[in-house]
Amino acid sequence: MSARAVLDGPFGPMTLSERDGLIDRLEWRALPGEATPLLGEAVRQLAAYFDRRLTRFDLPFAFLPGLAGEVQRAMVAIPFGETRTYGDLSRTIGAPAQAVGQACGANPLPILIPCHRVLAASGLGGYSAPGGIETKVALLRLEGAASLLI
Questions:
Q1: Terminal Cα distance for the chain, rounded
Q2: What is the pTM of this model?
Q3: Which among 75, 71, 41, 76 is positioned nearest to 59, based on CA atoms?
Q4: Is residue 34 helix, strand or coil?
Q5: Can you tell me the distance from the alpha carbon of 94 to that of 110, in angstroms, rounded to the nearest whole number?
Q6: Domains plus CATH for the chain?
C-alpha cells in the first residue's frame, strides 16, 4: 500500500502522497494508503493553512526535473498573499511564458507549491483543480490576495 494521508479540506477530500521521504502529490480525492509521520505533518500544515494559521509550508517536496522543477521552485518563492504573472516567472527562470503556464498546469502539488498565485498578465489564467478558476479565487481570497484580482 502506498504512503498516503487524507485531509477533509474546504474543497473536499485531498490525498497527500509521499515517496522516498518527499511529499510528491496532492490529489483532490480520497485515496487509500498508510500514513507516515511526514504525511501526518503535511496534513497538519495543510489544515493550519486552511485555518489561516500557516503562511509557509515547511515540508520536503519532490520537485519535478528540468524546467517544471524550476517553475515549481519559483512558485514556492512567491510569498503568501502575493501573486506573480506567468511573464514574471518567465523572466525569473528564462523560459517562455507558455512553458511556464504548462508547468504550472502540471504541478502535482497544488496549494503546497502555490500555482494558484500565478496569474495571466490580464486576468486570472487557468487552474487545473476541481472547481477551476473558482477554486483559484477562493485560495487567493483565503490568503488575502483578493484585492489583487480587481
A1: 46
A2: 0.91
A3: 41
A4: strand
A5: 23
A6: 4-50 (no CATH), 66-149 (1.10.10.10)
Q: Which of 14, 89, 113, 115 is catalytic?
A: 115
Residue partners of 31: CB distance under 8 A and separation at least 6:
2, 4, 6, 15, 17
Q: Give dist(CA 60, CA 43) in Å, integer.
A: 13
Q: C-alpha cell of 79?
A: 510569498
Ordered per-residue pLDDT tens for the chain, 150 residues? 679 999 999 999 999 999 999 999 999 999 999 999 999 999 999 999 999 999 999 999 999 999 999 999 999 999 999 999 999 999 999 999 999 999 998 999 999 999 999 998 887 877 777 778 888 999 999 998 865 554
Q: Which long-range contacts (CB under 8 A, 24 or more apart) does 68-74 make?
A: 68/103, 68/106, 68/107, 70/95, 70/103, 71/95, 71/100, 71/103, 71/104, 71/107, 72/103, 72/107, 72/109, 72/113
- The enclosing H or E element of 26 equals strand 22-27
The yes-or-no answer on residue 104 being catalytic is: no
Q: Which of 73, 139, 24 is nearest to 148 (CA)?
A: 139
Specify whether the CB–CB gap between 5 and 40 falls below 8 A: yes
